[in-house]
Specification:
heterodimer, A: mainly alpha, ABC transporter involved in vitamin B12 uptake, BtuC, B: 406 residues, alpha/beta, Rossmann fold, 2 domains, six-stranded mixed beta sheet, 15 helices, 23% strand
Chain lengths: 332, 406
């Protein structure tokens, strides 16, 4: 199948699934009513549900899934390791730690402005710090296993600091933080969507701009250099985009597991290529689709109890990693 | 494309190379022309790869100067360099889900737009490169599914479609079977002849280098010990000291290494000539026999093989027929031999004299074995030999040489 056909199919599926997400839920909104509300914003209960809850959530899910997946793809190329992703490398944990500093302590209460910008900024700083540590280690040790273990360990350290902060925090703050930490696209406000859009879309366009050198990096640094790439600059740009994306989404939606790791593999299978010029738009659509699907399941499987999003993504994502290892496509 | 010959495309002067502050090789002065096939030889760890990495600018030199096409190497931008120089490395690359065609097309990187789209020119370059290495049949195959030999050819094609004037290869024949090894070296030689590309490759096989290289560079003990055409450089003693060979002898005439095996025990006489005895002598030497042979002309293939194997040789300058004097000396040698292998060339007048040796052996009661008889089954001949104890042993190159020049 030509990539263009696959892209169109995926796009149609994303739109269809999003419509289902808008219609379906605790309160069902009939499809005709949905179009009516979307066309002329009324002030009925269903209108409020749609405009203030479901629509922001559906958009955040699409953007979030796309952002996590692009971040994961970039990291997999960077480390030439197929089982890395923002969550595995501890990047999400770094972001979590920094976000917990904002949410759980009073250190920043005096600042004149507040979330979402300050949380987002801290989330990004956290992810950059963790990656700095992992990259420093990766430059000394080539082994993929070591890299993963370092990522996990840094993740644990971040967790431990986070939990110490939790022990000292006040109950009310903890409740909000725990909910955030489960990872969810629930409760997005329009200004947060705006932030996600304004930061996320340019970053993803930058990622697409990097797709040519990314392809060359698939052959390793030495070959890439011999083909005329400024490897240092490319790597810096690559890492910057990957971390900024991961930090952005973690700060706003909380840590969401496995999307960043599993979706690039799904896209590779769907498009049967490693060509990043196809894969980057590919993971954007696949990521949006998979995350929307997971969110639909999380909201409705045991309704009215809403399941944490990470529970669903991990449940489907972990087997992907295991099957990759079993097939021996992955060398650690 | 016109091939400019004569000018030095690459000039290296007082170069020192190494890692951090450890110098690996210093005082390097070399210059190469377009269309040359340069082989870098030396033992493991001598710095062959280091030298190549400095030339391809993967590693900064410690000091010294490298001039490529009249410009200092360090003054090239990465992209400019990529259009002049391509590499094939030892690092195993196997990106998943790449067709051979897509993989080779990555070599067009320095020429394509910022999304790497292929224009008709680029497609043509990819097809040319694939055809040049004889891999056009593979173009739709999955890169990961290739055999070692096929992969090496495809890696070569990728480098070629980069349109290089200088091609640098690190151990291009390592891990390859004989067929692919020869194929790859043949391709490299064609590139130099037909495209005027300067090819610089590190190699393990001296014998291959002797046969294909225009220039060989020997790296050992932190310096370039010798460099120049293999015909001048690859002399027995130089090769043996390069690799510190103790059990092998390099024959510059044969362009190959032989294992001289001077058996302690059974002496065997081989009557050969015209290259007929070479195979038999190798076999006997391998089995640990001490080989004597004669009478040979000094331009015979058998003569060179016998020398390299460290055999006792009775030889004479090439002339009409075998001299009586030599035959008498051969008969003396014959009396100590366990058996004689008759590998006389049939119907060549010049060797008629040697027929006398076969007859003499019969008179002395020494077994005469035809070389067509199953020589691999030598056990019964050895068992019969109650007068000798059979102790095969490798002699050193030095012993073997002393033997010839006595």
């Amino acid at each position: 199948m030509k990539p263009a056909v696959t892209f169109s199919l995926l796009l149609i599926l994303v739109i269809a699934l999003s419509l289902v997400n808008l219609v379906y839920g605790g309160v069902s909104i009939p499809f005709e009513r949905l179009l009516d509300i979307l066309a002329h914003q009324g002030d009925g209960v269903d209108s409020i549900i749609l405009w203030d809850i479901r629509l922001p959530r559906a958009i955040a899910t699409i953007l979030g899934g796309a952002i996590l997946s692009v971040s994961g793809l970039l990291l997999q190329v960077y480390f030439r390791n197929p089982v890395v992703g923002p969550f595995i490398l501890g990047i999400s944990s770094g972001a979590t730690l920094m976000v917990s500093l904002v949410m759980l302590t009073t250190l920043f209460l005096k600042l004149p402005f507040h979330s979402p910008y300050i949380t987002t900024a801290f989330g990004m700083v956290g992810s950059f710090l963790v990656v700095a540590v992992v990259v420093a280690v990766a430059s000394r040790v080539k082994s993929g296993i070591t890299l993963l273990i370092v990522g996990l360990m840094v993740g644990y350290m971040c967790h431990s600091v986070t939990s110490i902060l939790m022990a000292f925090a006040e109950k009310q703050q903890i409740k909000g933080f725990v909910l955030w930490q489960l990872g969810s696209f629930n409760g997005f406000k329009w200004d947060e969507i705006g932030l996600l859009f304004m930061a996320g879309v340019p970053l993803m366009i930058m990622a697409y701009g990097l797709s040519k050198p990314l392809n060359a990096l698939l052959l390793g640094e030495d070959y890439a250099l011999s083909m005329g790439i400024d490897v240092r600059k490319t790597r810096m740009a690559l890492l910057f985009v990957a971390c900024a994306l991961a930090g952005l989404i973690t700060a706003l939606a909380g840590p969401v597991a496995f999307i960043g790791l599993a979706v690039p593999h799904m896209a590779r299978m769907i498009f049967a290529t490693s060509d990043n010029r196809i894969l980057i738009p590919g993971v954007i659509l696949t990521g949006a689709l998979v995350t929307s699907l997971c969110d639909l399941v999380a909201r409705n499987l045991l309704s009215p109890v809403e399941l944490p999003l990470s529970a669903i993504t991990a449940f489907f994502g972990a087997p992907v990693v295991i099957s990759l290892l079993m097939k021996r496509r992955v060398k650690l | 494309m016109t091939v400019e010959r004569g000018d030095n495309i690459l000039e290296i002067s007082s170069l020192s190379i190494g890692y951090d502050n450890t110098t690996v090789v210093s005082g390097i002065d070399l210059h190469f022309k377009r269309g040359q096939l340069v082989c870098i030889l030396g033992p493991n760890g001598a710095g062959k790869t280091t030298l190549l990495r400095v030339l391809s600018r993967h590693l900064k030199p410690i000091s010294g100067k490298i001039v490529l096409k009249g410009r200092e190497l360090s003054s090239y931008t990465q992209l400019e360099l990529a259009r002049v120089m391509a590499v094939v490395l030892t690092e195993r690359v196997a990106p998943p889900l790449f067709s051979v065609y897509q993989f080779v097309a990555l070599g067009r990187y320095p020429y394509t737009d910022f999304l790497g789209r292929l224009k008709p020119d680029d497609d043509k370059a990819v097809q040319d490169a694939l055809a040049l290495v004889g891999a056009d049949m593979l173009s739709q195959r999955d890169f990961q599914g290739l055999s070692d030999g096929e992969r090496q050819k495809v890696l070569l094609a990728r480098a070629l479609c980069q349109g290089p004037e200088v091609l640098i290869l690190d151990e291009p024949t390592a891990h390859l079977d004989l067929k692919h090894r020869l194929e790859v070296m043949g391709i490299l030689r064609n590139l130099t002849r037909e495209r005027g590309i300067l090819v610089i490759a590190s190699l393990h096989d001296v014998d291959v280098a002797a046969k294909v290289a225009d220039v060989v560079v020997m790296v050992k003990d932190g310096k370039i010990t010798e460099w120049g055409p293999p015909e001048e450089v690859l002399k027995a003693k130089k090769v043996e000291s390069l690799y510190e060979l103790e059990n092998a002898v390099f024959s510059s005439k044969l362009g190959t290494l032989e294992l001289p095996a001077k058996g302690q025990g059974p002496q065997v006489f081989v009557v050969g000539g015209n290259g007929e005895g070479a195979g038999v002598m190798r076999l006997l030497a391998k089995k640990g026999f001490k080989v004597s042979t004669g009478v040979l002309f000094k331009n015979d293939l058998d003569y060179f093989v016998a020398r390299a194997l460290g055999a006792n040789i009775l030889s004479q300058e090439p002339s009409g027929s075998i001299s009586r004097d030599m035959l008498l000396r051969a008969e003396k040698l014959l009396s100590n031999c366990l058996f004689l292998v008759d590998a006389l060339p049939v119907g060549i007048e010049a060797f008629k004299g040697n027929q006398r040796l076969v007859e003499r052996a019969r008179e002395l009661g020494i077994e005469v074995v035809s070389k067509d008889v199953d020589l691999l089954n030598l056990e019964h001949l050895i068992k019969d030999a109650s007068r000798v104890t059979f102790k095969p042993r490798l002699c050193t190159a030095k012993e073997a040489r002393n033997d010839f020049f006595d």
